[in-house]
């Protein structure tokens, strides 16, 4: 069995997949494109991702792209084979709630958060200046989302009550916002959200990734 991830170790979406692979106890090879130009070449578009994005994955000749689709594939095939970690429950109703919160994460959480992190982290890393208007608008939108999360997490350690793929998908972008962009107060000032972030960010598998790929260094 050979699992190859095509992506960058600092990419939030690549990190989602690497985290899942570690949770599942699976070995993998990370192949990092030599440049951003490489992922726009005809060969890459034809064999890795037709929209010139990362990550994509090859599992013994089976190729798939798009992070959430890859995540579900890995869990459908390998969950329970190496570790006892369950990220998508077999119970239909519990699984539906995981999907519900994955939709919430994509639509209301990551949408403003990704804009904020791009401006404060990735844009600056490439010599650009953060746009104050985008930063302000993204922060304001994220504040509203986190207010809802504060209510959703009342009396719960995780979004569905147990750690799942829905929680895991939140980790990389939030890590960058809290630990690099200096936006930790957005989470810390909300007790339920703060407790939830502590729970998901202190998983051993994630902490190993942070060390292995020198995230935030």
From TrEMBL:
State if Transferase is listed as a keyword: yes
Query: Which reaction does this chain catalyze?
Result: RX + glutathione = an S-substituted glutathione + a halide anion + H(+)
Biological process according to GO? glutathione metabolic process; response to toxic substance
Q: GO CC terms on record?
A: cytoplasm
User: For this protein, what is the EC number?
Assistant: 2.5.1.18
Every GST C-terminal domain range: 91-217
Which superkingdom is the protein from? Answer: Eukaryota
GST N-terminal domain boundaries:
1-82
Any GO MF annotation of the entry: glutathione binding
One Pfam assignment: GST_N
Q: Keywords for this entry?
A: Transferase
PANTHER family (alphabetical): GLUTATHIONE S-TRANSFERASE RHO (PTHR43900:SF3)
| Entry similarity comment | Belongs to the GST superfamily. Phi family.
Name used for this protein in its record: glutathione transferase
- Give the organism, scientific name: Rhizophagus clarus
